[in-house]
Amino acid sequence: MKLISFQKLGKKGENPRLWLESRRLESLGFRAGTPFSIQRHRQGIRLEPVLISSNHVSERRAVGRERPIIDIANRAALASLTRYAEIKLVASFERIEVLPSTRAFHIVRARGAKAPFETIEIFCGGGTLSAAIASSPDFRLVAGLEIEPKFADVWEKAHPQATLFQTDVRLVHPFEIPRHDILIAAIPCTSHSTLGRAKKSLAGKPELGDTGDLYLSVAHIVAHHLPVACIFENVPAFAKSLACLSLINHLKKLGYSVWEMLLDPFKEWNEPQDRRRWIAVATLRSGFQIAAPKIPFERSISEFLDPPTESDQMEVERIRKSIESLRRHKERHAKLGHGFGFSTINYDSKRVPTIVRSYHKINTGPFVETPHGLRLLHKAEVERLMGCEIDCNHYATAVEILGQGVQTRVFREVLKQLAGFLKGENPN
């Protein structure tokens, strides 16, 4: 007979405590009254019956029967186990081995990680968040996962030293993911955004959408590798979903401390675009919090726009029919009492509405006002607004990457704060 069990060490006063209570102890040769020895064994201890010892199996009556108990509250005997969050008991006849569990061993290893922290990014898109990772000497990007080929091509070109997984995350076993210290996952929002829920009839059940369950695969990877820290981001609506609540609860049960907040780049991070995002940072060491600089954007956006040129007229003419169609669509909805519209900006504007992934389709704003009419934002202008350059000359692909990405400057600061915390440089 063999028995395997997992549990945590308890405490008795100031001493660690190992408590084993089971009728199976009797069949394993540890009957009530049996003296046993405690010997160091690998990273733990081994218990074996002996003829004479100060340690004895005790007992108590429960449900009409006697139940053997092994109770060890000895700091010296359990010293090798006290730094582990969980222990593993492997019991066979007349032998009980008490060792740190594999999970506990990896948690201790992860907590000892040193910069540069090996980092993987799940759902990396074309690399707006990867750019923040790669720009910091405290992180080393070792792998990224992206299913969309055109985005994966751009990401691989920007990060040739890293491994690219071009696949659905559901198809990847965690064992195939390289060892890492930091996991970052910008979980796709198409099932959790307000627009996505409406278009796909997912109100109240976004987890059933085509991307709504992807958090489960990410949680599986985290549970397997137990990185020292994880960063997750999504649309604000994700924060109230069952997916978010179950993910956060699962992380806490794995031993993580989790900090959640809504990033407001325009009001708190001195960014011109009001692109709010939910973010959660999970660490195996408690105490981390993101400190927003609390600096609102109060300048004009002219510094992010290209100077007016003669080519503006050509650009205006190219999309004039699409703009006229949008105006007619807006007028029809206004007559029906609907709020459909599109936004415009100029060089004196103090804020830029969120630039969406489908911006290049000319179905929404913001459009730039010129003396000739409205034009699209240039690729370089969107890059300045997002804080990230995309090495891709195809306008639609570049704008899709930027429109579904994160504001790189904000996440560069978040990563800086996390690195400082992990290195013990700040007292969060």
Structural account:
The protein is an alpha/beta fold and 428 residues long. It has 3 domains: 3-100, no CATH class; 108-298 and 407-422, Rossmann fold (3-Layer(aba) Sandwich), CATH 3.40.50.150; 301-403, Alpha-Beta Complex (DNA Methylase, Chain A, domain 2). The chain is 30% helix and 24% strand. Helix 4 packs across helix 13 (408-422). The two termini are 49 Å apart. The mean pLDDT is 91.
How many strands, what sense, and barrel or not for the largest sheet?
7 strands, mixed
Strand order of the largest sheet: 12-11-10-13-14-16-15
Q: CATH-wise, what's the superfamily of the largest domain?
A: Vaccinia Virus protein VP39
This entry's quaternary arrangement is single chain
User: If helices are DSSP runs of H or I spanning 4 or more residues, what is the number of helices?
Assistant: 13
- Count of separate structural domains: 3
CATH topology assignment of the largest domain? Rossmann fold
Mean pLDDT: 91
Write the layout of secondary structure elements.
Elements: E1 3-7, E2 10-12, E3 15-21, H1 24-27, E4 36-41, E5 44-49, E6 58-62, E7 65-72, H2 75-78, E8 87-92, E9 95-100, H3 102-111, E10 117-122, H4 128-134, E11 139-145, H5 149-158, E12 163-165, E13 182-186, H6 194-199, H7 214-225, E14 229-234, H8 242-254, E15 257-263, H9 265-268, E16 277-283, H10 311-335, E17 344-345, E18 367-370, E19 373-375, H11 379-386, H12 395-403, H13 408-422
